[in-house]
Structures are given as C-alpha cells and as structure tokens.
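User: My notes are a mess, but here's the protein and NAP's SMILES. Can you give me a structure?
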Amino acid sequence: MSSTILVLGATGTVGRHVVDGLLAKGEAVKAASRAGKPVAAAEGVAFDYARPETFGPALEGVDRAYVLLASGYVDSKGLLLPVIEAAATRKVKVVLQSVIGVDADDSIPYRQVEIALEKSDTPYVILRPNWFSDNFHTFWKPGIDHGQIALPAAEGKSSFIDARDIAASGVAVLTSSSFDGKAFNLTGPEALSYAEAAAILSEAIGKPVTYNAVSDEAFIEMLTGAGVPAGYASFLASIFYPVRQNWTAVMTGDVETLTGKAPRSLKTYAADYAAALKA
Ligand SMILES: NC(=O)c1ccc[n+]([C@@H]2O[C@H](COP(=O)([O-])OP(=O)(O)OC[C@H]3O[C@@H](n4cnc5c(N)ncnc54)[C@H](OP(=O)(O)O)[C@@H]3O)[C@@H](O)[C@H]2O)c1
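Assistant: No problem, the inputs look usable. Here's the predicted complex:
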C-alpha cells in the first residue's frame, strides 16, 4: 500500500512548511506546484488546478493530500471541486485548507467545497485558518515599506495565525486518523486590531508603521493601481466585511488540540520575520 503525501501549493506560504514538517516526520512527500520543482528533499510534481490532466500523475501512488487553493484565485468551487473529486475517486484522504467563518452559510463557495468533501466517500479533515500573520511580509509589505498599512478593516480585530501553526496542524491531521471527519478553526492566541498589529510590527522592525482605515473603494483603487486584477481586488475588499464585524476576533484552542502547542503570537511572528519585514 502506498504511503505518500501530496502537498499542493508546496512552494507557497503554508505548503512549504507542510512539506518541511512532513519530511521531518520521515514521510514521503510529493511537492506540487505548476513549476513542479522539488522542495527540500521532497520530489516535485507539476500540478495546475486549471489543467485536470495534471491531477492523475500528481495523485499517482498517493494516499493522503494537503489541498489548498493558491492566493490570487477567486473561483474556489470551480477550481477545487474537480481536485476533491479526483482525490476522492482514488480514496485519497484529503486535508482541505479552507477559510475561517465559511461554515456560517452553506451558500458560500468555500463552504460548498467543504460540503462536497464531507459528502465524498473518502477520509477528510477540514482546516479553517483565520487571517495569516504572514500577510504582513507578503501582501501588506508595500504598506509596511511606506510606513502605513491601508486596509478596509475599520477597527475590527483578528486573531492572526502564523502559517507555521497552520502547517503544523496540517502535519498533525495528515499523520493521524484521530481527527478524520472533523473541521478545525485555526486561530492565533490574541485578537488584535490592525492599529495594534501595526504597533507590534513597528517595534519589531524599529520603524514607525501606522494603520489607515480606508473604504472598500479606496482599497480597490489602491490595489488596481498596483496592478492587481480588478476582480481579485474586489474579492479582497469583500473579505474585510467579516473583519469589520469582528467575526475574525474569535479565538479557539484548535491549534493546541492538534499540535499540542499554543499558537505563536503576532509578536513572535514579527520577531522571527523581522528581516523579511524590513527587506
Ligand atoms: N492569507 C490569508 O490571510 C488567508 C486566511 C485564511 C485562508 N486563506 C486561504 O489560504 C489559501 C492560500 O494559501 P497560501 O497562502 O499558503 O497559498 P499561496 O502561497 O498563495 O500558494 C502559492 C503556491 O501555489 C502554487 N500555485 C499557484 N498557482 C497554481 C495553480 N494554478 N495550480 C497549482 N498550484 C498553483 C504556487 O506554485 P506555482 O506558482 O509554481 O504554481 C505555490 O506553490 C487561499 O485559498 C486562501 O483563501 C488565506
């Protein structure tokens, strides 16, 4: 019986840590990306959501898969449902990286992907992370460079989670069947406004960074001006509504349940990533 784990988005924010964590546990890993490059000691395999002909070769010899949709894509249902189906047909256990809060309404596309997985006849675990701490050294990095993070979050709070804690949770559920058939809401240890987050980042990098609460329209204009496609800019603006409602301030013990360790604080993230935040 095969015992290999396919990791999608293996060169990305969460996937690279999932690969590292699985290799450290001695698991055989196939690292999937469009480029198909090896990641650390894991063999690389070419995979593209938009090219279903890549699914079969990627799933060959695989019994478990970490499935996520890369950032930059809006059509979660259209792109992930065929992947889930291909995995379920082969009885591959799927660990789906979803998004916190999507279980509030069954009409939300990500929730529909979850439901399809729940109804499939294959083992699964759903992980729903909150906003990543890592966004500060990726998406919001230009703002940090200019000393001001401008977002349509009003004064809403989020319990930011470190991608390393999402990955550690993924490794835990991929390497145990104890959590199968369940969903976990992954959060950091404290709910912070973006103004509070900016103060923490300022201190870590030794340079003033403030937060500017902007409107959806101003945010979309800023993103499209920086070259982000209009559809994705509107999508990003729309997902700040739950932040303004403070729904993302929720804190759970799920990371600790899965990994045995408390999740990292934003302060720890900022200290560990100070060089990347300053670069
Ligand atoms: N950021 C947040 O705050 C947050 C919060 C909650 C949930 N989420 C969810 O987390 C997901 C993103 O996770 P992430 O940040 O770890 O991903 P990511 O870093 O954006 O993923 C990039 C990876 O995906 C690969 N990739 C890009 N396009 C691809 C394609 N067409 N087919 C196959 N692979 C492709 C990339 O390699 P190649 O370019 O070589 O293909 C790379 O390995 C999203 O679904 C998002 O909704 C994010």
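The first strand starts at residue 4 and ends at 7.
User: Great, I'll file this with my notes.
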